[in-house]
Request: fold
Amino acid sequence: MKTDAVIRSEGMKILSEHLGIIEAERFVSLISRESFDYTEWQRNLYEDMSVEDLGAKAMEYWNNTH
Reply:
């Protein structure tokens, strides 16, 4: 199991790589300011995506990281 510090560090690295440092900081600030229900967010995250599209994205991610 990863420590909280490692998770924070890896999370910021991923956010920065995908959003850029400024947008990553904004994202963290937005999440910190408002009440955020991760479970509800996760439940709705892929709501408009078909199983095929989700599978294609997962395969693309796998191919790019391995």
